[in-house]
Amino acid sequence: MSLLILMRHGQSVWNAANLFTGWVNVPLSTKGIDEAVEGGRQIAHLAIDEVHTSTLIRAQMTAMLALSQHKSGKTPVIQTPQMVEQTSSLGDVSMVDWSKTNGPLEQILPVYMASELNERMYGDLQGLNKQETRDTYGDEQVKIWRRSYDVPPPNGESLELTAQRTLPYFSSAILPGLDAGKNIFVAAHGNSLRSVIMDIEGLSREEVLSLEVPTGAPIIYQRIGEEWTRIHEY
Fold first, then answer.
1. What residue spans of 50-138 are helical by DSSP H?
2. Is the pLDDT of residue 86 over 60?
3. Of 223, 205, 159, nearest to 5 (Cα)?
4. Minimal CA–CA distance to 200: which of 39, 54, 42, 4?
5. How far is residue 78's CA from residue 63's CA, in Å, rounded to a whole number?
6. Can you give the CATH number for the domain in which 7 is found?
7. Within 10 Å of residue 22's Cβ, how many Cβ atoms?
8. Distance between CA atoms of residues 184 and 43, nearest Å
């Protein structure tokens, strides 16, 4: 048996300002910080073996703030990806080499960052006020851009396109750990998590359009074999 803990980032400063955010890398608002801490309190008693988050700061802040409440005492450590070697006073080194620890590994909680978990990219809408965009294009058109499954905003991604990058990462980087019995915490975004939940729960294209993923609220699944069970209270 393993647990998958999903959490949408807390409110960002652009959520608070009613702006389309997408891949624009803005931080959490004060309210979002409080949401992340509260979400962390709700899962503080659950064992966590591995963490995955996006490359956007609002998801990373949420992960770290939530984990600051955890009772394990482990230190979250971001795992450095392989990068081009750099020359230093000590010769050619890589960030991977320099970030290694010789301390007790059992006290470390590995955190992996992946752009595949990033929010849906909103293209030409990024940075625009949502209400002003409705006033310009009409409520129905904006609703189609925001809520349809396969119609992207101009020069942006649909939920279908988002799923095409999110689900392969879930299958290759997260599912093997769950199958090995690990409990995994994923801090990401509304649309990247909607695609994962759609896959887990077998939702249709129509059903996923009404799926709401609240900010800062953990959603927990138990996995036994190939079977998923959503746990509302743990």
1. 57-67, 95-98, 130-137
2. no
3. 223
4. 4
5. 11
6. 3.40.50.1240
7. 22
8. 12
CB atoms within 10 A of CB 222: 15
Percent helix, percent strand, percent coil in the chain, to nearest 5: 40, 20, 40
Task: Please tell me the distance from the alpha carbon of residue 74 to that of residue 68, in angstroms, as a whole number.
Answer: 9
- Tokens coding 16: 């608070």
**138-165 residue pLDDT tens:** 999 999 999 899 999 999 999 999 999 9
Q: Tell me the residue ranges of DSSP E strands in the chain.
A: 2-8, 50-53, 75-78, 86-88, 91-93, 108-113, 184-188, 219-224, 227-231
Residue 187 in contact with residue 66, Cβ under 8 Å? yes
Residues 6+ away with beta carbon under 8 Å from 141 = none
For the annotated catalytic residues, the residue numbers are: 9, 119
93 belongs to a structural domain:
no
124: closest CA among 86, 157, 162, 169? 157
* pTM of the predicted protein model: 0.92
Q: Mutual orientation of helices 30-42 and 57-67 as an angle, nearest 10°? A: 40
Task: Compute the average pLDDT of residues 79-87.
Answer: 62
Residue numbers of the domain that contains 164: 2-81+105-231
